[in-house]
């Protein structure tokens, strides 16, 4: 299998259990996650040699973050140690008409203050096939944007394929700032992943459909995919499409465009949703796996959307599914009969 | 914001977790609640100075009940201490076709044996805007009915607005006894809240619609509201309407009548229900907040029904929601997108 | 009430909680169950004198298995002690599009190595009305098949009615082996219970309907029931019919045939399913109770399907419901209103 | 083994976990216990046919109390059903210099309002060898005292040996009331168990030693044992002796007198104490087992004190130990090496 | 009782349960605490009107910190809202030879960035008797030192008594910085509390005894107390003295000096220690309560040391004890007999 | 650091929490461990490249065992997959006078049925410095003994140092069988670790001291060490010495002999013991680390005994301690002051 590198932040996630509210809990379920770390775990579960690159404090909480990745086979020898703190986010899982709530406490984290000196990218990319990053990494700080730029340059030199999940975060930067940073980075990107909001905020593309208002006709996206592909030369443009009915029930599908073919996936009726955080990351990992494995365009898309449908049923940021399980759903009828 | 007083019993609630049955648990989740206490917590969460008046034992379990209210900002200095025990109720939360089950163990509680000497209502109502009580309070014992009568007289003298949630409990009294006690008390009531069963059992009004049989057309209630308003001179008559599909899924809406205008609310499809105990109390608190805040009649109703829709998603008797959260649901589309 | 005997294996069940995956848990919820043990618990809950016959190790885990049955009133004095281990199964409960997963670790269990010398069936069946077993018992080993044959002979001699739940398990034997063992045992059976897969694998009958493909028209089963009744002389042929929409939502109904009358039950929409393991056993117990109690054919069927609908809402293998609760659902509308 | 009957109250025990205080917990560990019930469980664990006689409510909490006894093999068919409530006690386990705290909420329980009509003692004592009761039973109410008197008369007529654990409870009655009730009942008692406080409060005997002040020389008790034996004709007088160093560490020993021989046991240094509630009951059960089994006087005493030393290490009211485990401690050196 | 004000930081404390290590937990027990907040809770438990002054974020975690104080009766209306984050500390409780470990993550907290504009001290001290602060407050930042200076000036003007717990924290500042800030603040202090390390690091006084090396003779402290009293004019100088035998067992005593009388307390053998965090704060609160209540010097000291001995047995930062419980230990023998 | 290989079985450990008994739990704490796996984790924690070699089933429970090792950095690429089951052991942790209890359910495990074909030892030992095994591995089956023999031969050829922890298990083999297998394997061993019982049962050496009887004078062991060293040519002979006072309190020390120097370690008073399983393994790992790191003989011994003293305070089989933590205890006074 392939060597794949991801670069980003890993945070301590403190979530309440069983739909309790932060105001009533005296118990936080502690897991660790972050966009690029989540992608690395999925890819390791699919049998790849996944390497996560980041920076965490030397203390035990930093070590616990590393251990959470090693547990699932991710290689962590390029995680730099030092800095002040591990970023945190609090998660309160909603239900029915009550939305989930995320409170970020990630400022001043070790990774957000990392500099290019923390990483030897020539060594890191030795033998690598793929590099994945998300828009969160350059949004964290000018320093992390510099690290990313350095990584992209080295990756380009070493012939590594690059995927980017745009992943716009309004708490981290404004659309103006995002576009000024992200648009120049697109020249390094082969596979661009992002939903309609991401494309608009990070790249300045406005989708025709109005998703907030519930219009989620996949075909409305074909046009914008073409424009994106034309402007930046992406080999693949990919997007998920979420239909929110309640905090517990969503529709979930996706689209991919390779410059020629535009595919729409099957739509999953996710009910109940156990944990939707990290669904986008599990989708990105599915796309990467499909492409690396030489799947057809529709098969790649179905693999990715099925992988991320399963993610909605799993606690924590990371998608604990094997290729076999994803395939069983992608090829099957999803009727949920017990596997004995 | 306003000073609001509520009078009633607070109980220890022992509930099983995660849909386990009483017969299989060795662990009870302990919270504290009761109709009027629940209303006080909601109102405190909305920024009011809420005072809960009751009587609890001097021991630690009584203190824990008080602490559960202080935690959410309710003033408890008028809770009398003494008597033998804190009332208890056991709750087993159902699922799907299995209904939830409540076992009461509330006889001989400190509050049920309280007398008017336990409370100085002139001091309690000093500066108060509103007094709320439910039909449970006079149902507990002749002593608590006497306390309530005394409170109502003083409230009337001091110009305090009075709301009553009829809240019929067949385990506590018969319809005959209920009507003989409740009907005379209605002269003190400005805002009367109750569903169809309450109106029939406590006041002797029979709704046209047959709710048990699933007929829940809101319009069928207009006539009875008029009659109630005419007989007792209520400023507002209010009712919720629950459509039970299963222990996990309900429809939920409400109606209000101010003598002139009859409003029906939007209907919420609650699925899954996390905990429906206290939904009526959270509704009553929403009505009180709407009226005190000078909202329009429809806005008051939508605020209240949205507040109580949210309550169905929250563990415990009390509704841990802010005005902002209730508003976001009342004004929004309830699609449950993550709040970051 | 009646004395009823069941013979089979009881296992330690190690299940993850709250939809967590085995890969992420450090906590197993430990209960004990097995087809025939589950039937015994249901029947004890209905007021019968239920006796479970098996063999478990002398150590504390074996004792805990016995205690789990005594707790619900099952008589365990005929459980033999000895052998090496208690069989185990791991259960990971799915959700939505992710199916539940069962991992068996039951080889070399004490019961699977039991021999007829471990049981004195003449003493065991003294005064008994009914004997129930499932296809799992003879599938475990040639030794358990021998025990069962001995039990059936003695039961026949002593005039005990016999019910069998075919319960095919592909991990335990092939269809060929199953049919070679099961078909000869059918001569002892009065009541044959099994779904379409069981009938095919254990007895060689192929249903007309294609259940995997979602065709679950009850009428399609009438023909096969007639054939089964004709060939083996069963007094009753009974089957459940599960429509799987997802791991969380199923349809559930059943059919019975007494040689003359063919009845179809109401269909339950089970959503959410808390725990579907043991649903078939709770159905079998319902059929046995209905017949012993002299209910009519349709009432027997409705009792059994209602009992097993309730089982889907209860954690663990065993169905913790009283006759009153089952009746309330069978006679009611299943709207899930709180029982106070 | 022998048929042994005990009569008394069983309560729901709500205890905090891991030394948390009632004021900070939202979780109660629920077990069931009571003096005579605890004795029955110990005796069942030792292989006897133990019958517990009591009255509990018909609801699920009453049933759960019964199930807690059946689980350990105690026969419960003579437990009457009805009445209002199951008595409760709250337990907060101390540590170091902080004492454990018990809050009783047992008034108006079903058993405390039971009458002789609830029990058919002639049937209950059929074939019984032994009857055990404690001073709590007659202290609960005049009704329970009447039940006990009836039981003792029938037991006497049927030649059943009677043991009594004096068990004085200052929350239930005064020394005067206790003596007026208990002294006449002593004529029925063969084996009298109680510590120095019990003997003083229930029977009016003042020990020479001052235990509160830490004087716990066993020999000081010989004189009082003689007097008790002389006055009431007891076959055995037995007492435990606790030296309290802290909530976590106690010394524990016992004495027995059969009218001729006076034996003192080995002293156990209990550190840490996991749960000391029910230690006296486990001791009483040990004495009963020793006598019934025909052990020598010293062996009986060592068995009982060793059994109750083990109880201090076990959560809950009941002593989950086998004869083999008690013997291993009584005969061994208590060095705590792992048993593999 | 008195109105007492404390000023400082409150943090979220994330601790592992039951001696697990951070590296192995997926569950943090969440409580809230901080030196001055802990003092406020103790004083509220003793019946005083305690006001905690601080600044926390507007989000739910900030609100939860406030609620944790309101629960125990502390007034929080002067807690300013805003800023970025709530400080956090991770706690891993040791055992035996393994020490407890604290990891701080408190930089950039809302309180550490608070300014005098956040607080109206003239309003805050209206009617107040006492003001308590610790050396942590000025150590957090120059801004908090400025807030404290402002508070001290206003307190002085309004005749409020001031106590200070020196509480040196090497992670927050150097001895040089500490002394340059703390020494000038001593002019406002009436009651100075601190152990030997605090006196040395914050004020530059070197104790004669070598505590790390285990020399903890209380008399060795008399001389240094005299010097401190002379230099700064303290009304009382107070210190605790901890003898560490292991993470589980400590000796604990204290000394007080009022310029004339030098008292030593009884020494408590704390074994096991449940949670020693906040022991110093519970001691300070005991001293304040003793002085305000007009206890004698020795009684004040014994009250305080007994209160803090109890704290070692209670989970969390705050001391959940009543005056009665503290008195029972101070006056009693600490033998830990069950309180029924 | 060094590459170190260990070969053995890893089991699922199901332990009760907080001193509960197996008979009363419905919850097992699931961890994974085994002698050689535990050594590998310790060595990885010390910075070495530790490789664990074994065989586990392909299902999720087998994967979870692997993940438990990867989490702490152990390399698992040489773990073969297949076979029927993962071995299990149940652990009930004792307290005070109640001993801990282990129930093994390890027969027929994947590893016990592994054959030399499952492992390519030439590849495994490539670049390795050290190979560690315990007496459990050859005791499991003739097949595992064959695997071990093959490993030892290859290790010898490749110049790898070999350590053996004798680890006699009476449940697995008799002393006769043990000696017939173990003695010939000693020719490959450089470092022999084992307590007095191991030396006697596995090698036939009878210690002079009688440990069961409490005679644990270290000097009594010098003679036997000399004999062992002489007969088998060990470079080091090492032993721990446990003094059992209770299940909660032990003394713990060790001895080492290098053919010339005989060293005794400091003795640790372990109180309370949190979890003593794996203490011997943590000791062995300490010895290996000391020797590889070039520590002096006494420093090696103190490092190992300090590491294993810490293990007694940590839940689970594996020792989660860093070199720094072990050093801090070995060099310090163990007084347990909080590390901030």
Largest interface: A-B, 30 and 26 residues
Number of strands of chain A: 15
Strand content bin of chain A? 15-25%
Query: How many helices of chain A in DSSP terms?
Result: 11
Assembly of the depicted chains: homohexamer
- pLDDT averaged over residues of chain A: 95
In the predicted model, the low-confidence regions of chain A spanning at least 5 consecutive residues are none
CA-CA gap between termini of chain A: 29 Å
Structural class of chain A: alpha/beta
Q: Regarding CATH, which class of chain A?
A: Alpha Beta
- Taken from the alpha-carbon principal axes, the silhouette of chain A is globular
List the topology elements.
Six copies of one chain form a homohexamer.
Chain A: E1 3-7, E2 11-15, E3 27-33, H1 35-45, E4 49-53, E5 55-56, H2 60-70, E6 80-81, E7 88-92, E8 101-105, H3 121-124, E9 130-134, H4 136-140, H5 142-157, E10 161-165, H6 175-185, E11 191-193, H7 196-203, H8 222-232, E12 236-244, E13 250-257, E14 262-264, E15 268-270, H9 279-292, H10 297-311, H11 323-331
Parallel strand pairs in A: 1-4, 1-9, 2-7, 5-6, 9-10, 10-11, 11-12
Antiparallel strand pairs in A: 2-3, 7-8, 12-13, 13-14, 13-15
Helix pairs in contact in A: 1-9, 6-7, 9-10, 10-11
Task: Throw out a few tags for this protein.
homohexamer, 340 residues, alpha/beta, UDP-N-acetylmuramoyl-L-alanine:D-glutamate ligase, nine-stranded mixed beta sheet, four-stranded mixed beta sheet, 11 helices, 34% helix
């Amino acid at each position: 299998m392939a060597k794949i590198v991801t670069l980003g932040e890993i945070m301590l996630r403190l979530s309440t259990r069983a739909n309790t509210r932060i105001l009533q809990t005296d118990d936080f379920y502690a897991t660790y996650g972050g966009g690029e770390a989540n992608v690395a775990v999925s890819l390791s579960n699919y049998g790849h040699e996944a390497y996560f690159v980041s920076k965490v404090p030397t203390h035990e909480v930093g070590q616990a973050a590393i251990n959470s990745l090693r547990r699932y086979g991710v290689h962590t020898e390029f995680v730099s140690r030092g800095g002040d703190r591990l970023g945190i986010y609090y998660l309160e899982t909603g239900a029915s008409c009550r939305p989930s709530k995320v409170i970020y406490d990630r400022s001043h984290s070790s990774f957000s203050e990392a500099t290019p000196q923390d990483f030897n990218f020539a060594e890191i990319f030795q033998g690598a096939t793929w590099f994945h990053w998300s828009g969160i990494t350059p949004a964290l700080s000018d320093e992390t944007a510099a690290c990313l730029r350095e990584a992209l340059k080295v990756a380009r030199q070493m012939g590594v394929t690059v995927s980017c999940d745009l992943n716009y975060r309004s708490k981290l930067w404004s659309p103006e700032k995002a576009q000024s940073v992200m648009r120049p980075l697109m020249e390094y990107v082969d596979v661009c992943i992002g939903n309609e909001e991401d494309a608009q905020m990070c790249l300045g593309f406005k989708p025709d459909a109005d998703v907030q208002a519930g219009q989620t006709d996949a075909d409305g996206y074909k046009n914008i995919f073409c424009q994106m592909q034309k402007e930046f030369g992406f080999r693949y443009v990919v997007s998920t499409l979420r239909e929110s009915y309640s905090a517990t029930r969503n529709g979930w599908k996706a689209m991919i465009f390779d410059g020629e073919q535009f595919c729409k996936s099957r739509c999953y009726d996710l009910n109940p949703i156990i944990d939707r955080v990290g669904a986008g990351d599990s989708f990105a990992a599915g796309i990467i796996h499909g492409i690396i494995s030489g799947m057809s365009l529709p098969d790649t898309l179905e693999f990715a959307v099925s992988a991320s449908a399963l993610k909605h049923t799993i606690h924590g940021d990371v998608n604990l599914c094997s290729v076999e399980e994803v395939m069983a759903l992608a090829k099957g009828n999803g009727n949920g009969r017990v596997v004995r």
